[in-house]
Amino acid sequence: MTAPQMPTARRAFIAAAGAGVAGLGFTAIAPGLHLMAVGGANASEARKAASAASSNVRWGLLIDANKCAPGCTKCIDACHSENGVSEKLPDPRQNSQWIRKIELVDRRPGKTQGHTTQLPMMCQHCANPPCVDVCPTGASMKRADGIVLVDRHTCIGCRYCMMACPYKARSFVHAPLTEQNPEVPRGQGCVESCTLCVHRIDKGQQPACVESCPEGAMTFGDLNDPDSAIAKRIASVPTTQVRADLRLDQGVRYEGI
Amino acid sequence: MKTLNPRHEEGLFYLLAAIGGLISAIGLAAALYMEHSGHVVTGMNNQIVWGLPHVVAIFLIVAASGVLNVASMGSVFGRVLYKSRAPLSGLLGLAMMSGGLAVIMLDLGRADRAIVAATHVNLTSVFGWNMILYPVFYSLVAIYLWTMMERRMNPYSKVAGLATFVWRVLLTSGTGSIFAFLVARQAYGSALLAPMFIVMSFSWGLAVFIVVQASMYAWNGMTLPPLILQRLKNLLATFIAAVLYLTAVLHLVNAYFAKNIAFEYFILFDSEFAGSFWIGQILIGSLLPLALLFHPATRSKALWVNIAALLVIVGAYFQLHVFIIGGQAFPLDIFPGYDVKSSFFDGAVDHYTASLPEILLSLGGLGIAFTMTVIGVRALHFLPQDDIAELEAAVRITD
Lengths: 257, 399
Fold this sequence. Notes:
Chain A is α+β, with helices and mostly antiparallel strands. Chain A is 22% helix and 16% strand.
């Protein structure tokens, strides 16, 4: 379904073009941090302190839209409670939403026309994330295990990543924050999005949304491990990557759409 | 034309510098307020993430590069008419670039992290390239001005001019590429945007130059020689027509792609941006100036040429408003073939109204550019001085 070669080539091209510009102006530019892959990791194990995330693992989510119940917001409540996303600004368009429920009505002619579907939408944790490509400081980054994150210390709040994300997955913190979760630092003037509950994953736990879903509509696991529940399910039923035409190779997959 | 007496002239200079300084200071205060309160005090939100400050900043940055066209015509292409105008074009380039960068940097969510932006450069990001493009632009233009204004350095001005010319083409390609390298939104993601921004810069930069030059001539009680007026007017008309052509190509090609028809219909006919496009960008910013520049009753009159240039600047604002705000107002097509709705306003057209702090910050950028120009032209020798005999001889040769 996916062909990641093209986006990778695109990234390499942009980097080469950028290096060309740099070469015209400067003789050398610090290339920034590289996340090194060390050791193996297992979906059921916590990551050891001081060890780097491993590229042997690709964390992913499979969401069964058929099971997602209309009106249920348990995943949203759990996410926002876990991550301390609680602000309610006068203009709701300025509030952060790390995860949201989208209601879809099929308008394609045919048997499914008019069919309604619900699904939770969040950062899709792309293998070739446009937000990472466009971030001027490298604050927007992809961890070796596929989780796309924002480094709070280097995000300058330019919002270019929000322009680049095809899923409207990112929010900008528009006002001062209070009552933060110490494990999930957030910051006024920075961009943020679903971290796949990286702080829980590193402790060997599941993302809060997955744990909270009463319908069991969300499966979390290692896409690289053929024996994981998520990989088995993806191998056995038709699943979709949203806007697969962009070939971003998302870690979040859907069934039932 | 009457000249001001020196005392009044000095008083007027201080008054203008003070007004410019005050507007700049108010802009800075607005930025501090936004920094302290957060962007909650702006009209921007999680869908329209770039607003009026970006419209104004990008205008200033694009025009800053384009205004150097005048210098390039003189130094790189050896046109006598433009040579005496090169220093003024360099000054305007630096002044507008400063105003534009100030606005864009002060609008950052974390403007205090400018040093992070300078020390952490991601080369896959067009914004990252800017960390190189802008400082080198400043250095090259400064060196170029030095080679023009310091007699000993004159022999190097052609090389410096050439380097500046190449660099500003790269820089404006970068500005267009900010939008070209976006896969997400239907308004952007076209390779045409890089060359289009370059042509836009020619048009807007020359328009600014014509207006500033007219003000300086009026200040000094001088009249622009008709020969120069005619040349500048013809050049401006060419650039306006070129922008119009590229605009038509961009929209026609986009409208041919079935996936973009809804967006094109939205931006051209069925939104608050349609009026800005047809009346602001096309009529006021393109057709009216073209008519003024070509109509026998107006084309040789300095006043009407200046009005045409002013209309180009007004049109530039509308063009960027439609392009930047309109491009974001249209919802992302996350699920093609479906109607969507959510608590995050998926599938909904967004609306944006700039708040007072944003307006003041944007005016502050204009204030910075204005103040730098006023002080620059007063303190240094920037008034174009033409040797008419030399000019006429050169024109005879090139014609």
